[in-house]
Amino acid sequence: MLDRSESAFTVVIRSRFYRSAFLALLISGIGLSAATPQLTLFMVRDLGAPLPVAGLYYITNLAAPIAGYVVGRWSDRSHDRLLWFRICTLIGAAGWLAMASAHAVWMPFVISTVALSVAGGAMAQLFAACRDELSRHPTKVENRVIAAVRMAFTVGWIIGPVFGSWFGGVFGLRALLVATAVCVFAQLIPLGRQRVERYADLTLPPRPPSRRQIDHLMPLLIFTAVCVLTMTGDTIKFGYLPIYMAEQLHTSDAMRGAVIGIQPLLELLLLPLVARLADRFGPLRIMTVGAALGLGGNLAYATSTSVSGLFLGQALTAGLWACVGALGVSIAQQLYPEGVGTASGIFLGTIPLASAIGGAIGGLGVAAIGLPHVFFLPAALTTLAVPAFAVLAARTEPHRP
Length: 401
Description:
mainly alpha
């Protein structure tokens, strides 16, 4: 066990694998965030899809948790954890190339369901490999190590949308999708030929019979379901908050960009703090606080009549996503330690699942109650999540002074 004075930054810098994982997530984050906001525009402009049909694209995210579970189960049976990271990465690069060459409206739906849902397992298995390394070389700052590696993906999501807007405008959206395929493939480069052996904890009881595995999975499934409740508002925010600012608050383009862009910057700053608090008080307790911040953020959106209220909502929402980003995958792995690949795949698959559910809620909610009151709907869901996280924390985490 490393000395308490050891910092997460030092642990990451000294480890070749953690440094490589950081660079891989940075490259992946830039590529994915460059293309994702442009996909609807690509389907409308290049494929001629009606806007309502293009909006249905994100329903394909429903396949992500299933793919994450299947890939995770295979990963938990493999000796080299990075094998499935590499397989998922190659499938993802091929999927984005296929997306760039699509010529019919139905093709992005099939490509996303079949290939890109599997590609999401690459990040999950990279975090599973991080858990294997932490189990093999324990440290008292493990939450901070995971947060430090995760920060790379957040930085990528700050850089990527700006790069994607410029690149797509200059070279076209098909060229942007090819560039995304290159970035997805390039995340293999930092890891080279490294291997991370799957860690086998001999203190854990033998894997139960199949009919009892669902009982062992139940805490993980409950946790991920509660996380979905907290994350549905994000899709609604990205889809409708700019419209609300433009059509009802009549803000400038620069101000809209400032409101949307402040959240990932604050999230990046909060990630180390959240991880430090989790090492001190327990990750599920901090997730409970994060859900409460998310509730406050949705209420701020729903009741704001000025930009200042939206800035407040973004600051509170940044607290929620800092908790999800820094702690979510670690909690999932701790709730199902006999299968950290499965746990990572299921948890990271719930993020696109929440996006799909949030899109459906947003579309129906805007039609029924309008803007900005549609944000009361994710606020109601997050209200359920706060006590649920608190109960999970009380049942699974020991009391810490």
